[in-house]
Known about the structure:
The chain is of the alpha/beta class.
Amino acid sequence: xxxxxxxxxxxxxxxxxxxxxxxxxxxxxxxxxxxxxxxxxxxxxxxxxxxxxxxxxxxxxxxxxxxxxxxxxxxxxxxxxxxxxxxxxxxxxxxxxxxxxxxxxxxxxxxxxx
Length: 114
């Protein structure tokens, strides 16, 4: 998928909307969070640090798949460090993906090199 193309896949509304292996990974992440990080997340508001890269996209996708069954309220936060010319486009792509997934998106730009 080109970086500027919005997400055009099927809606991610439940674990059933993911491939089997990805659904198992989402359940493993849920068990880890609940078992190692302090208890159930059901009904919680979660702010996902979202760069738009592969790792944070996988994390956001997993929480979208768990959103309904766990009654989660999700939002994504993106920080554009202003270090690369294409970073503004990366932020727009991250926002487009969040919009397609129905996840509120917040973004800031900070020129850290300055």
